[in-house]
Design brief:
The complex is a heterodimer of chains A (247) and B (116). With 247 residues, chain A is α+β, with helices and mostly antiparallel strands. Chain A has helices at 2-9, 13-40, 43-82, 86-101, 137-149, 194-202, 207-211; strands spanning 107-117, 154-157, 160-162, 168-171, 174-177, 180-182, 186-191, 217-228. The chains are: A alpha+beta (247), B mainly alpha (116). The A-B interface holds A 5, 8-13, 15-34, 36-37 and B 3-18, 20-24, 27, 30-31, 33-34, 37-38, 40-41, 44-45, 47-49, 51, 53, 55, 58-59, 62.
């Protein structure tokens, strides 16, 4: 009886052992995968960061309002000071020109708007690197570069004024311009001779031709009046300074 | 009864050493499937102890439980409810139940021996 029972007991053992190995392997791989995932980030962290982001954005908006109010005061003071004095008025005028050169004033004039949008092929074409069908920071930069070289006087990308120390950088699924995140569609407004600006983009082998194979939607519109907002960021010079003149 | 334990330990070591990892989206599926596996294995051990082991029932239970568990998680994701928890509670309680059965069986056997 005992012998029979013992044999019966061990009948299923090899099966159970094999399944136990499978179970163990699954547990091992899963534990390793979870360990790897945890090192990336957790959902708690994401919500914490997003609430921080919201509060910082609010603070940022408040500060921008303050800045605008202060700027208004400054220009009022300037206007009152300049009254009645020719010398001061000419200084004011050159200051205004410098501001314009630095992209600190809103400008308006004729020009073109270039709208870049991600390719519709992106969702339908398989087996090809999907990112090739998206608008990249490099594409925006090459458009901006062509526009400037064709004599554009002011350029903004989705309302972000492009100034001397502006940067355009890929930031995951969005693009950072002047440190502000913008997403497709990208509207690049440029003030300058509309015909020359358009020609600078559409010449054979130019920017438009290089983007077309990827199906990136590019639309150029000539416009008699384009408004470009001023640069709202700060320029701080910590390392750079004007060398003192000798003699 | 030592072999299943050795099997699990060996499997964990193999799993840790092998270069493969599960993608992050599969994490909850695999977790529930592990519980289903554990339930089947413990159920199998109970069956062996009771002398009622049937390999067809065991293997089919092993595969179908895991698939069903993954399906429940998938369904929960489609319906936006945490059916995952239902699967965890069910398999979890069954794991405990099976452990209790094994423990009872082993202790009873021991007592019987002493009585003899």
């Amino acid at each position: 009886m005992t012998v029979r029972r013992r044999r019966r007991r061990h009948k299923g053992l090899p099966f159970v052992t094999i399944i136990c190995i499978v179970l163990g392997v699954t547990i091992g791989i899963q534990a390793k995968s979870v360990k790897l995932q945890k090192s990336v980030y957790t959902i708690d962290r994401v919500s914490e960061l997003s609430s921080q982001l919201t509060s910082l954005q609010n603070e940022n908006n408040n500060l921008k309002e303050q800045l605008n109010a202060s700027m208004k005061k400054v220009s009022e003071y300037e206007a009152t000071i300049a009254e009645g004095s020719d010398a001061l008025q000419s200084i004011m005028k050159s200051m205004e020109e410098m501001r314009m050169e630095a992209g600190r004033t809103a400008v308006t004039g004729r020009g073109i708007t270039v709208t870049l949008n991600d390719s519709k092929k992106a969702t339908t074409t398989e087996g090809v690197e999907q990112s090739a069908f998206l608008v990249h920071a490099e594409d925006i930069l090459s458009v901006v570069n062509e526009l400037f070289s064709a004599g554009a006087e002011a350029i903004s990308i989705n309302g972000q004024r492009f100034v001397a120390n502006s940067s355009v950088r890929c930031a995951g699924s969005v693009v950072n311009v002047n440190g502000v995140k913008i997403a497709a569609p990208f509207v690049i407004s440029a003030i300058g001779d509309p015909d020359i600006l358009e020609a600078a983009l559409t010449f054979p082998g130019g920017v438009v031709d290089s983007l077309r194979p990827w199906g990136i939607e590019l639309e150029i519109k000539k416009n008699e009046k384009i408004d470009i907002a001023p640069y709202s960021g700060t320029n701080s010079f910590k390392e750079a300074h004007i060398p003192e003149l000798e003699g | 009864m030592i072999w299943p334990v050795i099997g699990v330990l060996a499997g964990v070591i193999i799993g840790f050493k092998c270069p493969y990892t599960f993608p992050s989206w599969a994490s909850s599926y695999v977790a529930v499937a592990i519980l289903a596996f554990a339930d089947t294995v413990l159920g199998g051990i109970v069956a062996i102890l009771e002398g009622k082991f049937d390999k067809i029932v065991f293997i089919s239970g092993f595969i179908i439980n895991a698939v069903l568990a993954a399906f429940i998680v998938w369904l929960g994701e489609q319906l936006n409810i945490e059916l995952l928890i239902a699967a965890i509670v069910m398999f979890g309680s069954r794991v405990f139940q099976n452990f209790a059965n094994i423990r009872r069986f082993l202790f009873n056997k021991h007592e019987k021996k002493e009585k003899i």
